[in-house]
């Protein structure tokens, strides 16, 4: 039994022998957005988790049909990792949070976008429908699970549509637990739905959605949810289903595959954020700046910065922090303890760049070797400040990641700055930077690449560099640049033959 009285779960009795079966939950807490890939789909990276509650009556088990309510068109799945609390948790630290998790399993956070308008972010009607939270089929004992090794996969009619690991998360499992328990007690049996990665889309009656969580060699097995059509009446008074183009776009998402939910989206999946960063880092900032200029972007290069590692390349998402000018009373209130600078560093996730707005003031350090090392350990791929750095030799030789800076200075930041707020839009080295923006860096400097065009910019930059390599070889052979640079029609056949020859050599 357990989990609302269901006896449909297949327990690993060997793993569970010293661990009681979870009681029915008093609440189900669901995270709105916690995966970077999902945030990129939605066009915004949240600074911290936000939540909604689902009633326990939404729980279902493996094989139970999920019924689309009458009059609704946009039933969407969200494959998620579910954490089931094992011991009472209130105001726990991230370091101790996992100790309160009893089990890990697969979940599917179904919702109908047709009713989202009725309750805004609370999702009462859109996600509170009976049977809209399938869970299972097997519970993994959290004591035997490495949170960093957890992956989530979802299939629709046998097609893989979601595949993400902990490295895709903006907030770790422990961060989510600690954040919730700052104000809300989690009781044994309570369930946390930890958010969904990219790939959620619309399904229709007749589809089969399967979700599986894997942790090392352990797996929950596929959680199967056949989609059906509800036959009960949905009568007024009350909010009735409504659909507009904005809701339809949100429901279908962008990372969809052919045949999913009968939609007419593109058959190819959008690139993952890892693929985007790899593509951006494979080309120079000079080429990126050239491609951005062709698109009308002339103000995205950060000015007057130096690098501790000019031979290194960098590509990552911005994690921002803003400093304000020093004032004694404000420094006393905001400058010490767990200030905004330290908060930003402790929130850094793999693939991010710590970006500091210091107003171009070069008369005090804005970061040193210890906090720089901590950012690197947290997963930062670079640090940028338009102010000064201190401990410059240690930053050069102790860190593997590049630090871009305006100057070096021995004084601590408290001489000129107060760390004021993290995860906000800032101005650094003359450029407006928002949390989640893509930053690329190399020996020439740093450039911001808007997320919405990053993939195409990187592809065009790659083609530009390939053309320039051909042009350089021709110039080295004595050819004049007229008609060759930039590549003109006369040289196009020779270039295409050169490309085919290189491709043949690489296969």
Give the tags.
single chain, 507 residues, alpha+beta, Fumarylacetoacetate hydrolase, domain 2, Glucose Oxidase, domain 1, nine-stranded mixed β-sheet, seven-stranded mixed β-sheet, 26% strand, disordered N terminus
Polypeptide structure, described:
The chain has 507 residues and is α+β, with helices and mostly antiparallel strands. The protein folds into three domains: 28-257, Fumarylacetoacetase-like, C-terminal domain (Fumarylacetoacetate hydrolase, domain 2), CATH 3.90.850.10; 301-449, Glucose Oxidase, domain 1; 465-506, no CATH class. The protein is 24% helix and 26% strand. The chain contains 14 helices and 29 strands. Strands 17, 18, 19, 20, 21, 23, 25, 28 and 29 form a nine-stranded mixed beta sheet that branches. Strands 2-1-12-6-7-9-3 form a seven-stranded mixed beta sheet, with no helix packed on it. Strands 4, 10, 11, 14, 15 and 16 form a six-stranded mixed beta sheet that branches. Helix 8 (285-294) crosses helix 13 (454-476) and helix 10 (340-347) runs parallel beside helix 11. The chain is globular and about 75 Å long. The N and C termini lie far apart (57 Å). Residues 1-18 and 255-267 have low confidence and may be disordered.
